[in-house]
Design goal:
Blueprint lengths: L2 E6 L5 H15 L3 E6 L13 E5 L13 H8 L7 E8 L5 H12 L3 E9 L4 H18 L1
Helix pairs in contact: 1-4
């Protein structure tokens, strides 16, 4: 069985709720999944996993969270070539531009982008179901 790490940063809880739903979807699809806040995971830990779901909300001027998530992700990028990855996060303004930029960045790193999901503000039931489906998609991509 392939191992998946769900690594996220959340300030108000919206992206955390999305992360937990993605974990549920991946587990229900038969994946071996572990959930990490970004401060509990490092780029060196990536060697133990086969695929990743990364979650970070839009911050400031449509960027990844700059104090914890961005420094982690800069290190992680060198380890993404050929790796199945999915991205998710919430936003309150800007229409999701941060996610489009993040997608381009991940593709430029050579990752296999399985999917991405942006949800405005707090995820509702449909949003949580979409997060679970994203987790399922990553498991299917690994099998």
């Amino acid at each position: 069985m392939k191992k998946i790490a769900v690594v996220y940063w959340s300030g108000g809880g919206n992206t955390e709720a999305m992360a937990k739903a993605a974990v549920d979807g991946a587990k229900n699809a038969g994946g071996e999944v572990e959930l990490f806040r970004v401060d509990g995971f490092s780029a060196q830990d990536m060697k133990d996993y086969d695929g990743f779901l990364f979650g970070c909300p839009a911050m400031g001027a449509e960027v990844l969270e700059e104090a914890e998530f961005e420094p982690f992700f800069q290190e992680a990028e060198s380890k993404l070539s050929g790796v199945p990855v999915a991205l998710f996060g919430s936003y309150g303004w800007g229409g999701g531009e941060w996610l489009r930029q993040w997608e381009a960045r991940v593709k430029g790193d050579g990752a296999q982008l399985i999917g991405s999901l942006a949800i405005e503000n707090a995820p509702d039931e449909k949003g949580l179901a979409d997060c679970a489906a994203l987790g399922t998609s990553l498991v299917k991509a690994l099998t």
